[in-house]
Design a protein that fits this description.
elongated; single chain; alpha+beta; 2 domains
Length: 261
Amino acid sequence: MIRALRTAATGMSAQQMNVDTIANNLANVNTTGFKRTRMDFQDIFYQQIRPAGTPTAERQSPTGLQVGLGVRAAATQKLFSQGALEESGNQLDMAIEGHGFFQVTLPDGTIGFTRDGSFKRDGEGNVVTSDGLLLEPGITVPADATLISISADGTISAQVAGQDEPQVLGEIQLASFPNPAGLNAIGKNLFRKSPASGEPTINAPGTAGFGTIAQGFTEKSNVDVVTEMVGMISAQRAYEVNSRVITGVDQMLETAAGLLR
């Protein structure tokens, strides 16, 4: 019975972490470019009382006798399904329709990756994120630019005062990974590469395996509130059932202890 107490406790702990994950998804339902996280579970050790194939008086046991010892949280996985696009009206806002990540230069000089295309101009005309991180490769918009145009293939041009033809400012380069679920989320809508994600492939939008750019749009979170609420209710019920197992085992122990009086 002590074994059942510990097994139920692992169930409660796992469901608590599941609720934590769902809570984070719901908290970021309006976060631009956010990708929902899924919790993966695994059963843990088994106590083997009698192995399968043990000789019996007749021949051998076709099945063994094992007792499971609970569950554990095995992994959290980011799901990079496409979020809905929302028109913003900002000329520098961009959304990726398909696969790929924008590249930005992090404070330590390394490259970070994001699906958040809410870009702006800083005081020097550089295209930056809301936190001031430079888009990579860098794009500088002239102060006298009146109209910024971003094509589906990532070419950025601007109409500059005194020029008849638009001036090409640069080109967006997207990054793609063999295993995007292996990226490390570091907050602020940013990811870092990891050994599990593999090395990034850099290419222009619209090329094979890469999405295209939609100017004046941002990608909304791919969190579905209804799905998350259903998952939360399921996790709460699982937590409750495991707590009832502990209560039931406690009552059994009380009954057993009463036999000694």
